[in-house]
Write a structure and sequence with these properties.
10 strands; alpha+beta
């Protein structure tokens, strides 16, 4: 068995309390029935306020992608569902090296499992560029370098997260993306290991979404994006707010 690296240096433990969570503990926590039920829900959101290199988030993503694969009805539906699962994961990490590895690890986890899923469906294993581009766009939007306690990013600006409110249209998953500050989001209860789990075992990050009007009712909204199929979010097309 390969030894896991739990600390990078004694100084970092002293300065920022950095200690990585062993995989067996990650698995133990995620195997708890109340957590497992939410992991199996592609839209149930998770926020890791001290994400490190992504021990929790990569494992949750792996599990959600398996759920997406098992419940998919076609390749298009599979691709929509794995992106939907990815969009439900959020992370904040203070240290720059960890933050870079967090994004890298999430993307690699997504790409590897995406190709495995295609193989399981008897499809070519190269994948669609727009799916991978959209995965990268979601990861860059949902993973933030900053300080959870101050609600600020490394530039001393408010941490801003994207909401990917989903709905179905003509058999495909569409999303309406909006942004709002982390401070405006209702926080849940934090476990000893840093995973945020509210009283109902789900971190409901955002406010109500009306699927009939495709409108997000939120406060402190920053940007409004055009509704798009989830596989096209990489285009990041903004609503023209100058129009009447």
């Amino acid at each position: 068995m390969t030894d896991e690296r739990l600390i990078k240096s004694a100084d970092r433990v002293k300065d920022v309390g950095e200690v990585f969570t062993p995989k067996r503990i990650v698995d133990l926590m995620l195997d708890q029935p109340e957590i497992s039920a939410k992991v199996n829900d592609l839209t149930a959101t998770f926020l890791e306020p001290s994400a490190g290199e992504g021990a929790f988030l990569t494992e949750i993503l792996t599990r959600k992608m398996q759920v997406a694969l098992e419940g998919s009805t076609s390749v298009d539906n599979y691709e929509d569902r794995i992106l939907l699962g990815l969009s439900s994961l959020y992370g904040i990490e203070l240290m720059e090296d960890n933050y870079r590895m967090l994004r890298h690890n999430l993307y690699q986890t997504f790409a590897v499992n995406y190709l495995r899923g295609l193989k399981a469906k008897g499809q070519p294993e190269h994948g669609k560029p727009k799916v991978l581009k959209s995965a990268k766009a979601i990861i860059f939007a949902n993973m933030v370098q900053g300080n959870t306690l101050t609600y600020k990013n490394v530039h001393d600006q408010p941490i801003v997260f994207s909401e990917w409110a989903s709905y179905k249209q003509e058999g495909r998953i569409w999303v309406k993306r909006t942004t709002q500050t982390f401070e405006s989001i209702v926080e849940g209860e934090q476990t000893d290991n840093g995973l945020v789990v509210p009283k109902d075992s789900q971190l409901d990050l955002f406010t109500d979404f009306d699927p009939d009007t495709h409108e997000v009712k939120s406060k402190d909204s920053y940007l409004q994006y055009k509704p798009v199929q989830i596989v096209d979010v990489y285009k990041e097309e903004l609503v023209d707010t100058n129009k009447e």
